[in-house]
Design brief:
The complex is a heterodimer of chains A (110) and B (134). Chain A is of the alpha+beta class. Chain A contains four helices and three strands. A three-stranded antiparallel β-sheet of chain A has the order 1-3-2. The radius of gyration of chain A is 16 Å and the shape is globular. The chains are: A alpha+beta (110), B mainly alpha (134).
């Protein structure tokens, strides 16, 4: 299981990157993150929604209500222009952290 | 939950839909309704923690509104001062003061007081809110 500080810090870049593939709704976002991390990255389900709302307030994403093919009402979120910029920034910073960490790890095995 | 008309800073509609989807999924995996409900409730998180997280994003909106009000107050103050300008210049020669200038002067004064009061009250509320947060 991944520690909760890291789960919290990675929520925004993960949501932005998922929405970059196309619009989605809360439940599907949680399920996809769970599946992609083999269940190791687990949010407390309800906590995703305040994060989504904050991101919407900040103008990174936008939302609209629509009915699914099964007739169920859902709130769909999609990326805005500022969200794309924020995502690029996140990717840059996470890549930097990753490369420093990988470099240090490599040195330990030399 | 929604039908019960519960007033809360938490948008219940989204959470309710989430809960229904999770219960349905758990039941498809073979759990009975009661167990599926219990697990889904547990997964959605502690009500108090959720409420405080939602309140954080509500506070952001309130703060943003206050900033707009403060900016509006300052703008009113500025317009008021501009309106005072012409009558004040005219008043250098008492004989040249027109009735329009007097009206403009009074309106300008009202706007200056309004603007000052609006921006002062909004700033005070914003300051008190930030103190409470700390």
């Amino acid at each position: 299981m991944i520690r909760k500080e890291l789960v919290a810090a990675s929520a925004e870049p993960l949501i932005l990157s998922l929405l970059a593939k196309g619009e989605s709704y809360g439940y599907a976002i949680i399920q996809e993150v769970k599946a992609r991390s083999d269940g190791k990255l687990q949010w407390t389900d309800g906590m995703l929604y305040p994060v989504l709302h904050r991101m919407e307030h900040r103008g990174l994403i936008k939302s609209h209500w629509a009915e699914s093919e099964t007739g169920r009402k859902r709130k769909y979120y999609s990326l805005k222009k500022d969200g794309k910029t924020a995502m690029a920034k996140h990717h840059e910073q996470w890549s930097l952290v990753h490369s420093v960490l990988a470099g240090l790890r490599k040195e330990q095995y030399v | 939950m929604l039908a019960a008309g519960i007033k809360t800073p938490v948008p219940l509609d989204e959470l309710e839909i989430h809960l229904r989807e999770e219960i349905q999924r758990q039941m498809q995996l073979g759990l009975d309704a009661q167990k599926a409900f219990e697990i889904s409730i547990q997964r959605i998180g502690e009500p108090n923690v959720l409420k405080s997280e939602f309140q954080k994003s509500n506070l952001l909106t309130v703060e943003r509104k206050r900033i707009k009000v403060i900016a509006g107050g300052i703008l009113t103050l500025f317009v008021g001062f501009m309106m005072l300008w012409a009558p004040v210049v005219q008043s250098r020669d008492v004989r040249k003061i027109t009735s329009e200038a007097v009206v403009l002067f009074v309106l300008g004064l009202i706007l200056v007081f309004d603007g000052a009061a609006i921006s002062f009250l909004a700033s005070k509320r914003s300051f008190l809110a930030s103190k409470r947060k700390a």
